[in-house]
Specification:
Elements lengths: L6 H14 L13 E2 L7 E2 L2 E2 H18 L2 H17 L11 E2 L17 H7 L4 E2 L4 H18 L2 H18 L18 H18 L2 H18 L7 H19 L4 H6 L9 H17 L7 H9 L2 H5 L2 H6 L15
Antiparallel strand pairs: 1-2, 3-4, 4-5
Length: 334
Amino acid sequence: MAAGGDALYAKRAADTLHAATALLDPVWGGAYQYSVGGHWSEPHFEKLISIQATYIREYSLAYAQTHNPEDLAAAQSVHRYVQDFLSDQPSGVFFVSQDADLHDGEENEAYFKLDDKGRRALGVPRVDRHVYARENGWMIAAFCDLYAVSGDASALTQAQKAAQSIVLHRSLPGGGFRHDDADPAGPYLGDTLAMGRAFLELYNVTADRSYLSAAGRAADLSQRTLHPWHPVPASSRLLLVQMRPILRTLIETRISLWFVLLQSSRLPRLTNGIATWLRRRCVIWRRTQSPCARCPQASCLRQMTSRRVLCTSPFWERRKRHAPRRCMLRHCER
């Protein structure tokens, strides 16, 4: 809305971005997880890779729109921290988090008031060195955003190295990705979705069609996983069940699914996985014109809805005295 010229929302966005810089570590860079007490001045000092990716992306996008140097400086601060603490330089992959405590159970506020030398003299909080495909996908996409607005080649180089490493160590047959070294309950939709998005972002900034092909393979696996004639893993089935009332509401009120794809950030967080998957499929179709990617909505709707759910909804009960009860899906009448 701010990008569309709404002055009120532009001010709200600018004020929020400015206030959120209070959660940046002034010494090492990086963003703390949150602040307690309803204000910005009491940070919880844990640093999660998801928070770092969000900060880099949001401040990069803000700088692209406003050219405010403070926004670029914030994104670069987080970038510097991730490179120094949450990444493996030889392989380029990203780690999960850094603890808030130097020692478990000890007060840590005084520690984070020290300078770099003072902190290192006491030690460095533990870094969780697990390497997850989903988290790496988030950060690869964020680094691409930073490169796009700043021209920082180091961000693009590390994004490409991380993508290559994840492909090498987390790939599944058929184009998907494992979450960790082993996934007893997987594969999970989130990992393949995040890496598919990362490949699309890499394609956007490099025009290398091998990345577009990789994104297409990830989307193809997602489509096969969600197809009604194939078993659905528990992780995906949970999302499907909880998406059903959302989709039923959309159909009842005749809201365009395409509009929802473009505005998926307004859906409840729980539904973002499916909505983002559909949107990425549409992006891939626009770039490749592949018939396999042309209409993913139909397959997803078939899986997440049923004739009984759609045809017994209150919408049709309200209309039954005025018109025949017909489902909006073709070949489904009552």
